[in-house]
Amino acid sequence: MSSDEDDPVSPGSDIEGWRRVIAQDALSSLRIEDIVAGLQDIGPNADRRVVNALMMHIADKLTRFLRRRVGYNHPNNGQDIIDRAHAEIIAAVLQPKSADGKGLRESFYGRAKFRLADAFQKELKHARQEASTDAGILDEAPPDDFGPDDGDLNEAVFVEELLSHLPDWRMALALRLDIDGCPIESKKGTHSIAGALGVSSKTAGELLAEAKRLVRLRIGERA
Asked: Which of 9, 32, 73, 187 has its CA 20 to 30 A from that of 204?
């Protein structure tokens, strides 16, 4: 049998236990499924420092997992595919009663593969639609000219580097969903930033605006 130190046990819903794990920089020694379960059990309104640490750890692990599986041969170096899958998975982490929310507790990377496959399908569908609509334009433009416009803050390219500097995990999720084209509020019950965060549309808008302001400051652009 391994010692407790060698084989750490998840604190579950014990907020003090999570504080100790974080203070010892021991999150990487726990199963990602246990961290998701712990975050869902303590809830997003628990100690902000604990929630931030767990969310950022999950987001970082997920980003690394997705990046290894998405080639740079896709538009925007595959970042759009990664962001789309990442946003859906992180949103599911915060929805423990959803099918994905439950699935992430059982097999995090298995569930992530499903969402990544969905993101690839959406990218392929989008590419086919653009090709059929802009066939003539594609002949005139360089085939690898997929760079972002000057005014889009380059968020899709720099988001992974910038997320760790945002002071609130809700800002990070709001920014990811915004990049994926998700509306702040939906009147038809579909996915929205406010719904994913569990806040009002006003609060969601404020979090998104602040995230973008911090992004601009970080990359040296004026707000």
From this structure: 32
